[in-house]
Specification:
Two copies of one chain form a homodimer. By secondary structure, chain A is α/β, with parallel strands linked by helices. Chain A has two domains: 60 residues; 141 residues, Nucleotidyltransferase, domain 5, CATH 3.30.420.10. Chain A has nine helices and five strands; from the N terminus they run ααααβββαβαααβα. The first copy, chain A, has a five-stranded mixed beta sheet. In chain A, a hairpin with a 6-residue loop joins β2 and β3. In chain A, α1 packs across α2 and α5 runs parallel beside α8. Chain A is elongated. The N terminus of chain A is likely disordered. Chain B binds a DNA/RNA duplex through β1, α5 and α6.
RNA sequence: CGACACCUUAUGUU
DNA sequence: AACATAAGGTGTCG
């Protein structure tokens, strides 16, 4: 498809090549996990050195066997930002891959909650591999799925527990089917707790927010 | 005493001076209520222009005669607070006087409704002047009196409309006689609407609640 | 079913 | 220290 995907495929192939050659070259078992070339290969493939040692010799021809589950699951970290709330806002997402994929967007008039949903929604639209973990610091987004708030909403005609209309229904109706599909997990993390990818997603969101602000309020 | 009190005494004296001078100056009766200086003086003293016109000429020397009842009725503003509900709770009340009287108390294990009743009950126990207006943001407390819920309860042996025992009967049995006595009026106000005395009563309740919490759960 | 109140949680800001 | 955006709940009455 696009350049990052091609690059990623190439990197994975090179990693498999490296591992095959190391096996063929008779690298000793105890040195295996300490070789930097093996370490790089494992990082790209998302597997441990032990898992790499178990790979068949022809893995460079056949690809990663399905039986070898990557030990580092794919994650998309998401975040939203909103100046003033309500006000101009932005969202951003970034994957935990060696060469992270990223996305961002903004809206000149929105709320913090819409931006948090939009971050997760656009992440799931853009990153289609499964299984995947969507990471968010918003209990609003995570609890909707993990505590099955959406089940009650759909049952009561999109009314919340106070019998008022559920807010941001348009985004939820897009997000819920994607987030409840097979292989999608939601995970909450505390914001501003130093998680590097949470900070990276925040910076994407803030940049998009500021762009939306500049666009929405031209001076 | 303190600075605000001194300031208030000074303001009241200036108001009396103004009224005395207006009388001495022969201000016409029909103009009297429309003069902004008189209006300001009346506001400070809590009396009507008509009452001001009836003041003796030497009121600026003798002070406000006791016979002139302030036209601003006495009010007690009440509020309750309860952490968790049920949980540790507190109540508070404060009068609308120039030097407000206040009261508060707490309970390490109670409900929001008990605290709302307790606030009004303790206010009526402590402030014995009549007439008096008890102000609460709880329809539970106000409607019991103004919609005469208590009449039905007493008639049915303290059963509510679902034929279950009326909750908080112990407090109601103390409160109802006091609240239905001559000169006692109940008034409802919306909570969190910026009424300064509602906020003041809330702060008293919250402080008492936090004290009860600290006392009830010593670490 | 309606009403009022009391909270709990997280995020976004000013 | 204050407000907004949102969800969940209990306490109580008619």
């Amino acid at each position: 498809m696009n350049e990052p995907d091609d690059l990623r495929a190439t990197a994975e192939q090179l990693a498999l090549d490296t591992i095959s050659m190391a096996k063929a070259g008779g690298m000793p078992d105890d040195y295996w996990p300490r070789d930097p070339r093996i370490a790089r290969a494992c990082l790209v493939l998302g597997i441990t050195p032990e898992e790499a040692r178990e790979l068949p010799a022809d893995a460079y021809l056949t690809g990663l066997p399905r039986a070898v589950t990557p030990s580092v699951p794919l994650e998309v970290w998401t975040d939203g930002a909103c100046s003033g709330n309500p006000g101009p806002g932005g969202w951003g997402w970034i994957t935990n891959e060696a060469e992270p994929r990223k996305g961002s967007g903004g809206d000149p008039a929105t709320t913090n909650q819409r931006m948090e949903i939009a971050a997760a929604l656009n992440a799931l639209k853009s990153v289609t591999e499964r299984p995947i973990v969507v990471v968010s610091d918003s209990t609003y987004v995570v609890n909707c799925i993990t505590k099955k708030w959406y089940v009650g909403w759909q049952r009561n005609g999109w009314k919340n527990s106070k019998k008022e209309p559920v807010a941001n229904r348009d985004l939820w109706e897009e997000f819920v089917p994607l987030a409840t599909a097979a292989g999608v997990t939601l995970r909450w993390v505390k914001g501003h707790a130093g998680h590097p990818l949470n900070e990276a997603a925040d910076q994407l969101a803030v940049a998009a927010r500021d762009a939306a602000k500049a666009q929405g309020a031209p001076v």
